[in-house]
Amino acid sequence: MIALQQIPLLLDVAKPAGSNAAQVAWHTFSVQGINRTAVFLGLGSAFLVILLSTLGSKIPPSIVAVVSGTLLVQFSGFDVACIGSLPRSLPFPHLPHLDPSVASDFFSAALAVTALGAIESLLSARVADGMADSSSKSDPDRELFGQGLGTVAASLMGGMPATGAIARTAVNVRSGARTRLASIFHSLFLLLVVLFLAPIVGQIPTSVLAGILIGTAFRMIDFGNVRSVLRSTRSDAAVFLVTAFVTVALDLIIAVEVGLLLAGVMALRHLVHSSSVELEDVSEHLDLDEGHRLLHEHIVTYRLDGALFFGDAHLFLHHLTQVSGVKVVVLRMGSLTSIDASGAQAVGEIIRELHKKRIDVFLQGVFPAQRQILERSNALRAVTADHHIFEDLSDALAHARSHVRRTLHSEK
């Protein structure tokens, strides 16, 4: 996306109308008057940045590209677009005028700008963390707090809300930045340019800057990481490819939303497939005499694995309500990783349906957090009344045998 955004500057043509980087880049090639000299300068700058970075140059490759490209244009007289005139002073700080009668009209727009700015800045910080070799990682809270202070200060100077920029951050890191001091020196250098070096900086060809960003975009690609993601699982590869396509075809913010949504769907799918109900023959692991073994013919034990939530609650419900021909069903819940309200309601429905068949339900291994959710959903009303919740499997089975013995005796 960073590279596609530089195509109009690289070709030295006016930026065509378009809502995304791919559309703008596509329409740019159909514009008349492409400057071949600018293309040569831009591609040369991109090649120089990639080459010097590969060779491990101690001088930042972007500085070498800017200086060499500018000098080449100045001494050769190439007709290419340059940055042009820049302001020579800073605006005087003042409080902006705010009409209370129209303040409410800006509230929703301000929230939207805040959300987009926060997402873009955090993405920029995440990119920097992935590119930098330093073990120090960015703090999202500090990033957003600092951005808020900066936006408030900028408004006093007539500035607009801004975000952390992925392109400039990438150039900064690839140029050797390792700490936050790089941002401070970046600001000081911009101040120096505005006050003293504006005429010199104005002579830098825009195609050279575009080439630097294109070269930086190429260096940002971690081909090894891309290969590992594509080879990992089909779901991870699908999320990666769809997010990359939406980033180029639509917008970065939309791509993040689509990627999160798709990843959530894949995670739910994985949870559903990893959840199961397993019938256990626990009598084989217990030292039982013949009388107890006959009693165990009327007891079945099921182990619930995975997550019991809205995505697979109906599967648990369908499987367990089909049980018949026994007196007691023991549900081992110690292997459940999580349970939500839908899962708790499914447990309550299972207990009620089995009670209609005159089958009692014992629960074993219920964690406190799970029990709290089950109690709030009134799923344990029947089992708590009969004291049918146990911590140990042996206690649950001993109580189940006693229950079966009483039931069989009463039926004679």
TrEMBL record:
Q: Which PROSITE patterns match?
A: STAS
- Secretion signal, residue range per the UniProt entry: none
Any one annotated GO CC term: membrane
| InterPro entries in UniProt | SLC26A/SulP_dom, SLC26A/SulP_fam, STAS_dom, STAS_dom_sf
Example of a GO biological process term: transmembrane transport
Q: Where is the STAS domain?
A: 297-400
Q: Where are the transmembrane segments?
A: 37-56, 63-86, 106-128, 184-202, 208-226, 238-268
Compartments where located: Membrane
What SUPFAM superfamilies is this protein classified in?
SpoIIaa-like
Q: Look up and give the membrane topology term.
A: Multi-pass membrane protein
Record bears the keyword Membrane: yes
> Sorted alphabetically, which CDD domains does this protein's record hold?
STAS_SulP_like_sulfate_transporter
One Pfam entry name: Sulfate_transp
Q: What is its main location?
A: membrane
UniProt keywords, alphabetically: Membrane, Transmembrane, Transmembrane helix
Name of the protein described by the UniProt record = Unannotated protein
Q: What is the originating organism of this protein?
A: freshwater metagenome
Biological classification of the source: unclassified sequences, metagenomes, ecological metagenomes
